[in-house]
Every structure is written in structure tokens, then in C-alpha cells.
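Lecture 7 notes: from sequence to structure.
We start with the chain below.
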Amino acid sequence: MVQAYILIQTEVGRAAAVASDVAGIEGVTRAEDVTGPYDVIVHVEASDVDALGEDVIAAVQKVPGITRTLTCPVVSAAARSTSA
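Predicted C-alpha cells for the same chain:
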């Protein structure tokens, strides 16, 4: 299993719609509209790198309203700690 974050810039006023559209794509585990230099951040998973690129990322990039994407593959997933 491979994971990545996709940082998305959208047309003005389209962040919420893009996040909603992207959330419905197979392989997307989370899509949120945010503030800052990117408008939407998406977490994706796929069985391997080829599937990630050919299936998930390609589908995300076809969503109307997206102007630019930056894909950040996860290289090491640290376990979350709930202790303070």
C-alpha cells in the first residue's frame, strides 16, 4: 500500500466544490478545503505506485476547477501517539 498527499490550487471560489468532487474518487481517503497557499489537501492510497499515478492522481487532475497539483508521496508513516 502506498500513500500520498495531493496539494491542490483551484480557481477562485472553487475550493469547496473541488474538495467535494475529489472526495468521491476511489482511493481518496480524505479531502479538505483549507486556507494557505493551497486550497485543498487530499490524502490518497493505492495498492502500488503505478496504481497511484494511473488511477488516483490522474482522476484527481481531471476534476474541473483545479489549476495546479503537487503530489507528496508518504515515505514513512509514523504511529500517532495519544500521550502527552
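Points to note: The longest strand covers residues 2-10. The chain is about 25% helix and 35% strand.
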